[in-house]
């Protein structure tokens, strides 16, 4: 999946010349925690978030830096100005509509951000939030599997190969009387755990009988 498949659109945004009050009103109306900031030409100029607004002097949370220092002056402007341009973050991480979800999740982790604007030809066409990514995760989770013991056995064997690259001859899968019975040898305990996680995601109400051993377990 790509950014364009999960992004939120249309995007609530605010003008770079707008007031902080206007930005807050838009956030509340759109029920969102961050807004792309657009220039007069519609280009992306920055982003303003709830985090930026929590540094306001009205909340009495200004840093106790020495007056006149660069940090103190920056905090004063950020916490006292009523112009979006002064409070927004100008260094914006954005992606193209074709960006894969793994890339977006990586950017969020590296930059400690909660949302990424999606930009095409200099215009914001959508935004991907952590919540959007979580929705994609849920959509991709396997359903509680096929009915019938043979269907379940085949599904597990197929996923062991496709997901974990384990050939059918390495891990024997049997389904009998509501039990999923696994037998075989794997290299490490991590391999064994991955198999168990995969089977538990597919087994439905079946009980897992785990007879898989690691090389270290062999006499």
From TrEMBL:
Domain BON: 148-216
InterPro entries: BON_dom, CBS_dom, CBS_dom_sf, Diverse_CBS-Domain, UCP036990_CBS_BON
Keywords: CBS domain
Domain of life: Bacteria
SMART domains, per database record: CBS
Short name of one Pfam family: CBS
CBS domain location: 7-64, 88-144
Protein name: BON domain-containing protein
Organism: Rhizobium sullae (Rhizobium hedysari)
């Amino acid at each position: 999946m790509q950014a364009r498949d999960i992004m939120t659109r249309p995007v609530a945004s605010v003008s770079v010349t707008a007031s902080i009050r206007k930005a807050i009103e838009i956030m509340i109306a759109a029920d969102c925690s961050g807004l792309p900031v657009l220039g007069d030409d519609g280009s992306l100029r920055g982003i303003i978030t709830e985090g930026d607004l929590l540094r306001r002097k009205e909340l009495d949370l200004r840093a106790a830096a020495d007056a006149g220092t660069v940090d103190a002056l920056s905090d004063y402007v950020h916490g006292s100005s009523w112009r979006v341009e002064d409070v927004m973050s100008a260094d914006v991480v954005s992606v193209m509509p074709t960006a894969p979800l793994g890339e977006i999740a990586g950017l969020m982790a590296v930059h400690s951000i909660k949302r990424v604007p999606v930009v095409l030809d200099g215009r914001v066409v959508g935004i991907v939030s952590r919540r959007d990514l979580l929705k994609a995760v849920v959509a991709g989770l396997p359903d509680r599997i096929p009915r019938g013991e043979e269907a379940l056995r085949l599904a597990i064997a197929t996923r062991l190969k496709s997901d974990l690259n384990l050939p059918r001859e390495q891990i024997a899968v049997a389904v009998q009387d509501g039990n999923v019975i696994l037998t075989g040898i794997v290299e490490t305990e991590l391999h064994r755990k991955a198999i168990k996680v995969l089977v538990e995601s597919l087994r439905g109400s079946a009980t897992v009988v785990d007879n898989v051993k690691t090389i270290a377990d062999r006499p």
